[in-house]
Amino acid sequence: MSEPARHYPPQESGSRTSPGPLRDWLAAMKAHAPVAPDAKAPRADAPRAADPGQAWAPRVVQAAEAAVAGAEAEDVSELMAENLMLKAKLRQETDRYAELQAILAQEIRDLRKHVQDEMSDLQAIREERDLWQARCEALAQPLFQKR
């Protein structure tokens, strides 16, 4: 628990004593909870203290609701901050992914152009081969003709 809760002496009266952690928790709530002006007036649904001169009074339900709402608001703000961080990371990863896709697309275009150049070179070599084959056949034809 918090440090101030450990230094408060027990203030309960009567034969029933609270366990240590509960006493610490109640003391901490009293130390940290703001006292509303209407909290001093006894409420009908609030338990009454055995000793009317006792300084401690139970917390008002609205203050508990406000504390819970404050804790929920804090939780919500933490979730919103985490959500914003995750969105920023997602945006960054999306940008990186788009850059990688652009680089890969350019590499694929370059590779296709290279392959087309090689194929056109092979086509030129085939045409040249066919031309030389035709020349050889033309030159060799007289050798195989009957005289």
TrEMBL record:
Which keywords does this Swiss-Prot/TrEMBL entry list?
Coiled coil
Which top-rank group of organisms is this from?
A: Bacteria
Can you say what this protein is called? Answer: Uncharacterized protein
Q: Give the coiled coil ranges.
A: 90-128
Q: Where is this region: Disordered?
A: 1-54
Lineage here is: Bacteria, Pseudomonadati, Pseudomonadota, Alphaproteobacteria, Hyphomicrobiales
